[in-house]
Design brief:
mainly alpha, Tetracycline Repressor, domain 2
Length: 168
């Protein structure tokens, strides 16, 4: 067994458990000891794999987003040649599945809710890499459905109406 295969399971386990514990307790209430205990790894492992609690939290968030996108891919949504109504239906469906799914991925929504309620420095990254691109994609699709004559304010109202209804 090479070192990389021996190291990866502990890292993956720490990351998965970190997502679970951060989703349940939030960033501020989560402790390194709790994560290590549930992951069945030595506390020193955290220092080895992560620089700090903040770095571990940021990686846990990124992991949750990657998993959500892996389970609910956006290929058709991103394809500008796909019918806009189909793209919109899939985008809304994916968004709701990510928030409402009752499995490990359901932690995604809990993480986001904790982050919005008690923001950390990671919120800027989430806004930049996830929220802004999703809003831009939705605005593009709405504009495509309404046509070129649609006023920017109308597109924005539609966008906020769609995302506003998903406030769970």
């Amino acid at each position: 067994m090479t070192q990389s295969t021996a190291v990866e399971p502990a890292f993956d386990r720490l990351l998965q458990v970190a997502v679970e514990v951060f989703a349940e307790c939030g960033f501020r209430e989560t402790t390194v000891r709790e994560i290590c205990s549930k992951a069945n790894v030595n506390v020193a492992s955290v220092s080895y794999y992560f620089r700090s609690k903040e770095a571990r939290y940021a990686q846990a968030l990124a992991y949750a987003f990657r998993e959500a996108n892996r389970l609910y891919p956006q290929d058709v949504i991103l394809n500008k040649n796909s019918p806009p109504k189909k793209r919109l239906t899939l985008l809304i469906g994916n968004f709701l599945y990510k928030l409402l799914v009752d499995c490990h991925l359901g932690l995604y929504s809990k993480l986001i809710i904790h982050e919005i309620a008690n923001p950390t420095n990671a919120l800027d990254e989430i806004i930049e890499t996830t929220i802004i691109p999703q809003f831009a994609l939705l605005a593009e699709i709405i504009h495509q459905i309404l046509g070129d004559s649609a006023h920017k304010v109308v597109v924005q109202r539609c966008l906020f109406s769609i995302f506003g209804q998903s406030d769970v």
